[in-house]
Amino acid sequence: MRELSETDYAILKASENIVDGIAAMYGEHTEVLLHSLDVSNPSIIKIANGHITGRSVGAPITNLALMKLNAGQDISDSYLTKSPDGKTLRSITIVIRNAMQDAIGLLCINSNLDAPFQSVMATMLPGLTPQADPRFSPETFARSSDEMMQGSIESVRAQVMADASLSPSKKNREIVIRLNELGIFALKDSAQIAATGLDISIHTIYRYLRELKTSS
């Protein structure tokens, strides 16, 4: 370890959202924390779900974290450990480096294996059904850009067709509006693929897009 620079701390600061993002993804039974490796104060600078180990910002780095740092792996194998109150944790440690490849921080993830299964599943499932938002568009895990566009068109089309508040004459235009909001029409051949998928002419697609630009 060494004294960290302002640039090093800027990198760690930018990494803080990763802590919150992982915690939001896996829920209250997974602790996520960011260690600074500043030699003057190697400690936690960001933590989510600290109730799992009872720690908070400012808590010192653990001996095991230092061992993982010295093991030579930037991403450790997962390992089992115990929290102070005896919970079994499945953990992983990730080294954060600066542009000079100096280790400046550690991202640590600790999942509570003793948490009740139903509670774990409850935290993993969304609290609200996304369909409650009529403008929600499911993520498309496609293998090509064409497949992604077609999947997006079908998803948006299904939403719009199920929306009884829209008159039939306005539905194709609404589909084009929503696809445009998703950025679909920035992709190559997207207008032709959308026209084919919606069974309308490509000129109609372009007309809707022109109207959108005029009104914005």
UniProtKB/TrEMBL annotation:
Transmembrane stretches, by residue range? none
Give start and end of each Transcriptional regulator DauR-like HTH domain. Answer: 153-210
Listed Pfam families: HTH_22, PAS_6
Q: Show the InterPro entries listed in the entry.
A: DauR-like, DauR-like_HTH, YheO
Cleaved signal peptide residues: none
**Domain YheO-like residue range list:** 12-118
Which protein, by its recorded name, is this? DNA-binding protein
Lineage per the UniProt record: Bacteria, Pseudomonadati, Pseudomonadota, Gammaproteobacteria, Alteromonadales
